[in-house]
Amino acid sequence: MDARVSDLFGSGNEPRPQQQLGACNGKFGLGLASKKANAKANKKARARFSRNNFRPSNNTPYLPPEAEEGNIEYKLKLVNPTQYRFEHLATQMKWRLQEGKGEAVYQIGVEDNGMLVGLTEEDMRASLKTLHLMAQKVGADITVLRQSEVDEDSDGPRSIAEVLIRKVPDDQQFLDLRVAVLGNVDSGKSTLLGVLTQGELDNGRGRARLNLFRHLHEIQTGRTSSISFEILGFNSKGEVVNYSESRTAEEICESASKMITFIDLAGHHKYLKTTIFGLTSYCPDFAMLVVSANTGIAGTTREHLGLAMALKVPIFIVISKVDLCTRATVERTVRQLERVLKQPGCNKVPMVVANKDDAVTAAQQFAQSPNITPIFTLSSVSGESLDLLKVFFNIIPPLSNSKEQEELMQQLTEFQVDEIYSVPEVGTVVGGTLYSGICREGDDLVVGPTDAGHFHKLTIGSIQRNRSACRVLKAGQAATLALGEFDRSLLRKGMVMVSPEMDPTICWTFEAEVVLLFHAKTFHKGFQVTVHIGNVRQTAIVEELYGKEALKTGEKAEVRFRFIKHPEYLKVGAKMLFREGVTKGIGHVTKLQPIGQYKVSQREEDGA
Fold first, then answer.
1. What is the pLDDT of residue 270?
2. pLDDT in tens, 574-589
3. Bridge pairing between strands 349-352 and 372-377
4. Is 177 helix (H, G, I), strand (E, B) or coil?
5. Does the keyword GTP-binding apply (predicted)?
6. Closest CA to 361 of 403, 304, 316
7. Which runs of E-coded beta strand occur in 361-505?
8. What's the rounded Cα separation, in Å, for the pair 295 and 297?
9. Cβ 411 vs Cβ 437: under 8 Å
10. What crossing angle do the helices spanning 83-99 and 121-138 adopt, rounded to 10°?
11. CA 467, CA 482: separation in Å to the nearest integer?
C-alpha cells in the first residue's frame, strides 16, 4: 500500500484541506463545498477506506467492525458446519450478493469486530471448501483474491483470505458498469480499448483501434470524433470474455456475468462538445484518463480531468506507451500527474499500482473513497501490466447499492434519448439511459418536448442491451429501444420518453447557481453559452445575474438562463456545465419557470 494513503487516512485527528474551487492550473476545479459537508465526507471516506485493507501492525491487526448492510462479510472460520448452520450461512450469502448486485467479498479469518485472527493452513483449507459448497448452493462462483499471513503466534503461521463471490441475479443478464475513456489526442485511448476488447496486442501502428472507428475520416486520421461503445466481459470465475473467443456481442453477453461498457470519447479539442455530451448524458460510473508516457500532461488532459471532477465522476489514470520510453521518463510522467492530483483544486491521493495486490486494493478502495486515484503504467504493444488493469476491472464494485436502484425502480418511467437511428426492417431506434422506473416491451410512453412543448405517444417494440435482446429494462441501465414506424423527424437528442402519468416540467427559462471557472474578460447579461444538463445540450442566453453586474473567474452567482431554440425537460438540482470558447463554468439548477402542463400533440388527439 502506498505510504501516503496510510498517512492520509490512518488517523482521524489530522486536519484535511478544504475541498475548494480551484483551477487545475487555471482550467478546472471542483465545485465549492461547505467546510462542514467536506469534513463529513472526508470522515466517511476515511472510515470506508480502511475496509478490506490488511493493515500490518505491531499490535493485533484489525479491520473496521463488520457492517450489517453492504456486500462485505467477515467469517472467523467455516469448519464442518451443521446442516442447520450451513443453510443459515447460504441464506446470509444470498443477502450479501443481493446487497452487492451479484457480488460479495468474504474475509476469512476475521472476527465480526474486525480483528484479524487468522487460521491455520488446515482450517483455512476447510473454510474455503465450505465457502465453495455455500456458493454452489446459491449458484455462485468463488475466486480467492489474495491470502496474507498475520503476525505469527506460538501455534505457528496463521493467514487470512479475501474471497470474491459472484452470481448473476436471476432477474438480470449481467452486472453492468460504464467507464468513460478520456485523454488527449494520440494518447492511445482507442488502441487500449481495442487490445482489451479484441484480445490481441497492438502492432505499434494502430491496428488494434481500427475496429473501434465509425467513420472513414477516423480511420484515415487515427483520431476519434464520435462516441463509440465497446464491451469487455468477465465470467463468474473472473476470467476475461472478449472477442478473442466470442464472435459476437451476444455470445459475450451470454457467457459474461459482469460487463464493462467503455464509452470511447474524443480527445481532440475541436470535438470537446462531443466529449462533454458523453460525460453528462451517458452517466458513466467511472472515468479512465489515458495519458501518454512520452508526452505527459498535454493538450486536453488537464481539461478532461477537470470535467470529470466537476461532474463528480470518480477517475483513475492509465499511463500508456511505456514501451516507447525509458523508466526515468515514465517516472517523470507519474510525478507530474501526482503533482497535479495533489493540487488544492484536485485534492486527490494518487496510488501507483505495481502488482496484483495493489490492483485488488485499488479496486475496492477506489469505489469507496472519492480521494483515491489509482495510476496504472502499461503498454498496448508489449502487454506490460495489462493484466493488472484487467484484475482492477474484474473486482471494481458498482457505485450504487441495491436499495438505491429499487427506490429508482419504484418511480415512474423516464428514459433519456441520447442517440437516434434508422435501422432497415426495424424502423426508428433510440439509444439512451433509463433514469428511473422500469421499461418493458409493449409499454406505452410519450416522447418530447417538441419545439412547441408538446409530447407524442409511442409504443416500445423491442429492447436491446449491449446488442443482445432484453425484455425488461431497469433504472440505471443503458439500452436501445425499437419504436417501429414512429417518424424519426419528430425526435432529437435531449428528448425524454416518460410515462403518460408523469407531469414533466417543460421550460424555456431556468435559474442556476453557477461558478465561473475560467473566462477571459467578464461574464455578463446577454452572454450566450452552450449549456449541458444531462442529455440536454443547447445554446442559452444569460437573461439576468442576480446581485451582480458581471462575473469574473472564480466568482459565484445566481443566474437566469433562457434557451434560444426549443424548450427542454429539466429537474431542480440537476448538475450543469456551460462553455463558450475558453469560457467554462459549472453549477446546478435551482429553479424552473415551467411553460404549463405538457400536452399530447393535437394531431394525435384528433386521430384518437
1. 77
2. 999 998 888 889 999 9
3. parallel
4. strand
5. yes
6. 316
7. 372-377, 414-423, 427-436, 438-440, 444-448, 454-459, 463-465, 468-469, 472-474, 478-482, 496-498
8. 7
9. yes
10. 70
11. 12
Instruction: Give the three cell numbers for residue 517.
Output: 471557472
- φ/ψ (deg, to 5) at 176: -120, 130
Amino acid (one-letter) located at 67: A
Grid cell at residue 518: 475560467
CA dihedral 551, 556, 560, 566 (to 10 degrees): 90
Q: Which amino acid is at 582?
A: V
pLDDT (tens digit, 9 = 90+) per residue, 34-93?
A: 434 444 444 444 444 444 443 434 445 678 888 888 888 999 999 999 999 999 999 999
Cell of 442: 409493449
pTM: 0.79
Question: In 3-state terms, the chain is what percent helix, strand and coil (to 5)?
Answer: 30, 35, 40
Q: Which is nearest to 117 in space by CA: 177, 173, 60?
A: 60
What's the CA gap between 480 and 382, in Å, rounded? Answer: 36
Q: Rounded to whole angstroms, how far apart are CA atoms 198 and 213?
A: 14
Residue 5, amino acid? V
Q: Which grid coordinates are listed for 369?
A: 473513497
Per-residue confidence at 453, pLDDT binned at 50, 70, 90? confident
Residue type, position 250, single letter: E
Tens-place pLDDT, residues 278-319: 888 888 999 999 999 999 998 889 989 988 998 889 999 999
Per residue in 167-213, pLDDT tens? 865 655 678 899 999 999 888 888 898 889 888 887 665 666 666 65
Reading the block at residue 512, the C-alpha cell is 442556476
Rounded to whole angstroms, the Cα distance separating 251 from 262 reads 18
